[in-house]
From TrEMBL:
<feature type="domain" description="DUF58">
    <location>
        <begin position="56"/>
        <end position="273"/>
    </location>
</feature>
<dbReference type="InterPro" id="IPR036465">
    <property type="entry name" value="vWFA_dom_sf"/>
</dbReference>
<protein>
    <recommendedName>
        <fullName>DUF58 domain-containing protein</fullName>
    </recommendedName>
</protein>
<dbReference type="Pfam" id="PF01882">
    <property type="entry name" value="DUF58"/>
</dbReference>
<dbReference type="InterPro" id="IPR002881">
    <property type="entry name" value="DUF58"/>
</dbReference>
């Protein structure tokens, strides 16, 4: 394993991913809740009871514990009401990380493959610290590695090592042996019903099958998409000549060319509409993460109390 320090702009190594455990700790805000059982997990269960988190107040029903009666609501509504609580239970967390050819790029901040690896690592550390099982599927166009969920630090370290080793160090031919669709299909085989699944990708390589594959996962699991985007992909500069690294050398474009600007805008608009429809039909929650923003800062806006991801 290569654990030496290196620049994390284009590539992040194992040691840097391990150090992100500190970022995960910082994201875990102080909680006023009672201490959880040793194997209590990151997520809520659908089962209701005298658990750890208040859920709602409803009309009293025969068999309810009278100690749970909310006397203020009962007096206000002139009918007995009882408090319901939501018990936190363990759910396996599966992290699907895309390190494919389109991720070896950024115009600012860090390369998309670095942000994907960082997001995956922080989520893995968060889940492990909450007592959840953590697993992952990492793919880069040439290879796909599957790690089934487990509740061991050794498993997280193995996942981080995979993230470090499968990143690209240069632009090469755009391999298509392992795609996002391949990973999603594999996730259906690996994921336990009720899992918490995160798909971390730029979603530039979606196909006509991606919606159905995501929908099949979301049918029995909670699925979130973290889309890593670069500002240049959203809007081109108004003028100037720019070069983007390609498999056969740099590709130059003139940003002041109106025809080029229009063609680019139309392409982006079509993709954005297609992707939004994909997420809507599949029932997947999506969040954009910019290459210019640190991974921990991006995740902070998604976190609930105590670093919980709802």
């Amino acid at each position: 394993m290569d654990v030496t320090d290196s620049d994390t702009t284009t590539h992040i190594n194992l040691q840097a991913l391990i150090r992100l455990q500190a970022d995960a700790r910082a994201l875990k805000l102080p909680s006023a809740r009672p201490a959880r059982a040793r194997q209590a997990g990151l997520q809520h269960s659908s089962q209701r009871g005298r658990g750890m988190a208040f859920s709602e107040v409803r009309l009293y029903q025969p068999g309810d514990d009278i100690r749970s009666i909310d006397w203020r609501v009962t007096a206000r509504r002139q009918a007995p009401h009882t408090k319901l609580y939501e018990e936190e239970r363990e759910r396996p967390v599966l992290l699907i990380c895309d390190l494919g050819p389109t991720l070896f790029f950024a115009s600012t901040g860090a390369f998309k493959q670095v942000r994907c690896a960082q997001l995956t690592a922080i989520l893995a550390w968060l889940a492990l610290s909450a007592g959840d099982q953590v697993g992952g599927i990492v793919f880069n166009g040439n290879a796909l590695t599957v790690q089934r969920p487990a509740r061991r630090k050794k498993s997280v370290l193995r996942l981080l090592d995979t993230l470090a080793s499968q990143q690209r160090t240069s632009v090469d031919s755009a391999a298509t042996e392992t795609t996002l669709d391949t990973a999603l299909a594999e996730a259906r085989r690996v994921a336990h019903t009720g899992s918490r699944i995160f798909v971390i990708s730029d979603f530039l390589s979606i196909s006509e099958n991606t919606t159905s594959l995501l929908g099949a996962l979301a049918r029995h699991n909670s699925v979130s998409a973290l889309r890593v985007v670069d500002p240049l992909e959203q809007e081109l500069p108004k003028s100037g000549r720019f070069a983007i690294a390609g498999t056969e050398g740099p590709v130059w474009f003139d940003a002041s060319n109106k025809s080029f600007q229009q063609a680019w805008h139309e392409k982006i608009t079509r993709h954005e509409a297609t992707l939004a429809e994909c997420f809507r039909l599949s029932g997947v929650r999506a969040t954009d993460v910019s290459t210019r923003e640190a991974a921990a800062a991006s995740l902070q806006t998604m976190l609930g109390p105590g670093g919980r991801i709802g």
